Amino acid sequence: MFWRRPAKPTAAQSDYAAVCEARGAHCQVSLSGRITIDSAPDIRNMLLQRMKPVTCRSLTVEFRDVSYVDTSGLAVLVELLKVSHDQGKTFRLSGLRERPRYLLEATGLLPLFDGTSEKPLEDIA
What we know:
Layout: E1 16-23, E2 26-35, H1 40-51, E3 58-69, H2 71-86, E4 90-94, H3 98-106
Parallel strand pairs: 2-3, 3-4
Antiparallel strand pairs: 1-2
């Protein structure tokens, strides 16, 4: 099966860009730029739409080109993690570097996004 890719990246805010791909049950969104209070609502809506189809059983968000994430971006990621759990789907982050990785490590949330955590999602405030 071939990867489907839009003709150009989508971007509701100039802070970020996203390229969405799907291959069978696996969907991937490659983000670049900054995830801030200004761009987080658009990113949230876009990721929820990507996760919505029944055919998408796993969503991976590629962070290789994300230079900055603030707490509103972190809140979006936690919300998507909970939604995926409720729907019996998998939500992962890949390519985390520097500041985004540090934020997830400092908050103790990093293991939740790679499936190695034993902490129940219900314990996340």
